Prior knowledge:
Distance between the termini: 22 Å
Largest sheet: 2 strands, parallel
Strand content: 15-25%
Number of strands: 2
Amino acid sequence: MRARGGAVYAGRAAAVVGTSPGALGGMRVLFHVRDILGYLGMQVIPQQLAIGKAGEAVGDDGCLRDPAQREALDKLAQALVDTARRLRR
């Protein structure tokens, strides 16, 4: 039997990352997305990242230019992987 609606997301790990051309990087919407994912039963990790001025934040190589943002994204990704692994046990 297939899961219906949002049930396919229940119990899965999620991270919230936003970007926008403005200075806040979509910060205001991250809280709403977190709520929606939680409502779907996802385990949303506490770390989140908002990257402002998206047109300037990413280099020609597709990577974040700011080393601090790269590090924050790497840590967020590792936390997501760790959470997903714990949920699979």
